[in-house]
Design brief:
It is built from nine helices and twelve strands. The protein has helices at about 25-30, 70-85, 100-110, 125-130, 160-165, 180-190, 215-225, 240-245, 245-255; strands spanning about 10-15, 35-40, 55-60, 60, 65, 85-90, 115-120, 145-150, 170-175, 195-200, 210-215, 230-235. The strands form three sheets. A five-stranded parallel beta sheet has the order 3-2-6-1-7, sandwiched between helices. Strands 8-9-12-10-11 form a five-stranded mixed beta sheet, sandwiched between helices. The chain has a two-stranded antiparallel sheet with strand order 4-5.
């Protein structure tokens, strides 16, 4: 007699890149997975938490190169849940921060399949933190914006112009292709000397960083050969990160080599 299939879908935030930043709850969900569908921004080392017999399917999307369309991913989640049981949808960062997690949940639930969400550490917060950049700081920045650089219409979000008028720290995700526009907007608000950091492949051994100002950040990008995936951080708090740059580079290097946190 066949075992009854009990379909379940768990959205798990994989964190910003460093596999050690996966949550304990996320690791527990993976350990109980029959199928894992994972993104391009989810570190593949995290798949080791899933059973060896679990089916692993790459459904990553990069600019201009999609393994599956979003509609296909939605259907894969449902089909695998109905066929095998527990599907873990592993998404980079946090599933609900520009991750289309809510769309996937709504689609799955329309089939009567129960869902659960395990939040992840968002790159919008963790990647600056790894560079010593505190998005808020007493007397300097009372708030921060997290904005998508590229909307579903492939345009720069109109919220960037609103954010540029404030004194808040501004974090732009998926914005490298729109950097020229972002610079122009901040210059129009007389923010040309505002510090900027661009961090590529944050929290990973491949991390690259460029520090500058709104006025010269395009030159910094060219000199450092920076590209996607990267986040853009604009605000006075970036100056503090620049001061600590050497210390954090050494700390992260030692972490990646397993020389801290009892890994040696």
């Amino acid at each position: 007699m066949k075992n009854k299939i009990n379909p379940l879908v768990t959205l798990v935030g994989a964190g910003p890149g460093d596999p050690d930043l996966l949550t304990i709850k996320g690791a527990k969900a993976l350990a109980e997975a029959n199928v894992v569908l994972y993104d391009a921004l989810a570190n593949e080392e995290i798949l080791a938490y899933a059973p060896k017999k679990a089916i692993k399917i790459f459904v990553g999307k990069r600019k201009g190169n999609h393994a599956y369309s979003q509609d296909q991913i939605n259907q894969l989640i449902v089909d695998n849940a109905l066929t095998y049981g527990h599907v873990v949808r592993l998404k980079g960062g946090d599933p609900f921060i520009f991750g289309r997690g809510s769309e996937e949940i709504e689609y799955v639930e329309s089939f009567g399949i129960p869902t659960f969400v395990v939040p992840g550490i968002s790159s919008s917060i963790a990647v600056p933190a790894y560079q010593g950049i505190s998005l808020t700081k007493r007397g300097v920045s009372e708030s921060f914006w997290v904005i998508t650089g590229t909307t579903s219409a492939r345009k720069l979000s109109a919220d960037v112009a609103l954010a540029a008028q404030s004194s808040a720290t501004v974090v732009v995700l998926m914005g490298m292709s729109k950097l020229d526009q972002i610079v122009s907007i901040f210059q129009k608000e007389s923010k040309g000397e505002t510090p900027v950091a661009i961090i590529q492949n944050g929290t990973t051994p491949e991390e690259k960083v460029g520090f500058g100002t709104v006025n010269n950040i395009q030159k910094v990008v060219l000199e450092n050969n920076l590209s996607s995936p990267a986040i853009i951080v604009i605000g006075e708090v970036v100056g503090d990160g620049k001061k600590r740059e050497g210390f954090y580079k050494e700390l992260i290097s030692n972490h990646n080599k397993g020389l801290i946190y009892g890994k040696e």
